[in-house]
Design a protein that fits this description.
By secondary structure, the chain is an alpha/beta fold. The protein is built from 7 helices and 8 strands. It has a 6-stranded mixed beta sheet with strand order 3-4-2-1-6-5. Strands 7-8 form a two-stranded antiparallel ribbon. Helix 3 runs antiparallel to helix 6.
């Protein structure tokens, strides 16, 4: 996590820390859970983003066409709770996820280079991963829904087998 925070320090700093929370695989690792898969990005969740934060992300997006969603650039202020923006620097990726919910209370604090970063709880991180695992396609023959992201299925199995011996 320190490598990501050092690499994106100047990018993250203008966002502030009040409503900014680290999530994803790095959050799980920060809580001490064992994951065999290396994190592929730093997930930064901004809860109830301010207009200033949204404008900053839009401005930064204009400089990095590689990851830009054209629809998001047209109007980043509408329906922002579904938007995410990816930025790349030195082969590392930060994924900015915008949420319209309030910042959860059950957060871990992580001090890096004199700045305290909020880390999403294990429960909220797992709930988030679980919320976008399914593509909502119900197979009437098997009675199952299908998975969108194979990496989340692997993460759940990894968490179970490496941490809970189930």
């Amino acid at each position: 996590m320190q490598n990501y925070l050092q690499t994106f320090k100047n990018f993250i700093q203008p966002l502030g820390t009040d409503n900014v929370v680290i999530g994803g695989t790095l959050a799980l690792k920060a809580h001490g859970l064992i994951m065999s898969r290396e994190a592929t990005d730093l997930d930064l969740i901004i809860f109830k983003p301010t207009d200033k934060q949204l404008e900053y992300i839009k401005l930064m997006s204009a400089f990095q066409k590689e990851f830009i969603d054209d629809e998001a650039l047209k109007n980043p202020f509408s329906d922002y709770h579904r938007k995410s923006y990816k930025f790349k620097k030195n082969e590392l990726i930060i994924d900015i996820l915008l949420q319209d919910k309030f910042v959860p209370n059950d957060l871990l604090l992580f001090n890096f280079d004199g700045t305290y970063y909020k880390i999403q709880s294990v429960k909220n991180t797992i709930d988030a991963k679980r919320s976008y695992m399914f593509d909502n396609k119900y197979d009437s023959r098997t009675g199952n829904s299908s998975y969108i992201r194979e990496k989340d299925v692997k993460d759940f199995n990894d968490l179970k087998n490496s941490n809970f011996n189930l």
